[in-house]
Amino acid sequence: MKTLILDSKKQLGARAADLAAEAIRSAIRAKGEANIILATGASQFEMLADLVREPAIDWSKVTMFHLDEYIGLPAAHPASFRKYLRERFVEKVGPLRAVHFVEGDQPDPREECRRLGRLISAVTIDVACVGIGENGHLAFNDPPADFQTEEPYLVVTLDEACRRQQLGEGWFKTLDDVPRQAISMSVRQILKSRRIVCTVPDRRKAEAVRNTAEGPVTNLCPASILRNHADCTLLLDTESSSLLTRPL
After folding, report:
1. How many domains does the chain have?
2. What are the backbone dihedrals phi and psi of residue 116, each rounded to the nearest 5 degrees, phi first?
3. Using a CB cutoff of 8 Å and minimum separation of 24, what contacts does 102-105 make?
């Protein structure tokens, strides 16, 4: 895992977008299409704002897969990750080759997992743009995460630390409003991506960053598994990197 520390969120987002765009353009040159995974949340604001402005990307050749979504939350809800990605990405880049959202309000979440699993299993992901949670989660794989399952998407139960993060970021009015379950891409599916760009700003993520970069590789800090990936870049700002003790 390569680690980069930038001076600000703005620089962090710009560099992450550059890396993702490079992977997308390279895939299109090599095979005429690109398959990407996009995350949501406050950590991705600047990255997505820069990614949609990247030049020389034929978005009509790009298929987007969605990382995770709350179960039971309608797509129009202010905290819906589908709404987030539609407004911040899909509607800004024009028609994509395909968009595969996690439809968390389907009546059978496990069938939704199987539907998405069939779709993503048929392609190779060229770049996954992800973040890390305050509890070290990767997607909605809270600790102790399942590092073994080969299922591409899972129904997961969110721990309290995860739910409090969503509340603290302002997506919900009360903790009781935060759903207790979600559909999440699995850890092993994320690791199948050719390249991973992991963007983590803010002081509140500093402990999770230290555990990810310097602690043991363990499902108690799910993001630590990124150290086993052949082409993962962890992008930090001065705040999120503030607890690191080893030279980079």
Report:
1. 1
2. -65, -35
3. 102/66, 102/67, 102/68, 102/69, 102/153, 102/183, 103/69, 103/75, 104/69, 104/70, 104/71, 104/72, 104/73, 104/80, 104/182, 104/183, 105/71, 105/72, 105/73, 105/74, 105/75
User: How far apart (Å, rounded) are the C-alpha atoms in residues 245 and 243?
Assistant: 6
Rg for the chain, CA atoms, rounded: 17
Phi-psi region of 139 (alpha: psi -120 to 50; beta: other; left: phi over 0): left
- State pTM to two decimals: 0.95
Is residue 246 situated within a structural domain? no
State which residues form the domain around 42: 2-237
CB 105 within 8 A of CB 75: yes
Find where tokens 């978005």 sit.
59
Domain holding 182: CATH number? 3.40.50.1360
Is 114 inside a domain boundary?
Answer: yes
pLDDT in tens, 61-86: 999 999 999 999 999 999 999 999 99
